[in-house]
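User: Could you go from structure to sequence for me? I need the amino acid at each position, not a summary. C-alpha cells:
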C-alpha cells in the first residue's frame, strides 16, 4: 500500500487498476487480497507467464 501511495504522489496520478503476471498471478486468494488492500481491480492476462 505504501509503495503504491508513494508512486501516486510522485506521478500525480491515480492508480485505476493493477496488472499482474508471473506465478503469483495464478493465486486467486492473493489477487483478491491485493485488490482489497489497494482498493483497485487486479487484472491478469489469459497467459500469466509473459516474462
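Assistant: Here is the amino acid at each position, in order:
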Amino acid at each position: 500500500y505504501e509503495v503504491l501511495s508513494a508512486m501516486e504522489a510522485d506521478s500525480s496520478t491515480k492508480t485505476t487498476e493493477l496488472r499482474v503476471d508471473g506465478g503469483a498471478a495464478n493465486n486467486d486468494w492473493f489477487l483478491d487480497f491485493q485488490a482489497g488492500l489497494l482498493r483497485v481491480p487486479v487484472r491478469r492476462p489469459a497467459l500469466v507467464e509473459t516474462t
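One structural detail worth keeping in mind: The two ends are 24 Å apart (CA to CA).
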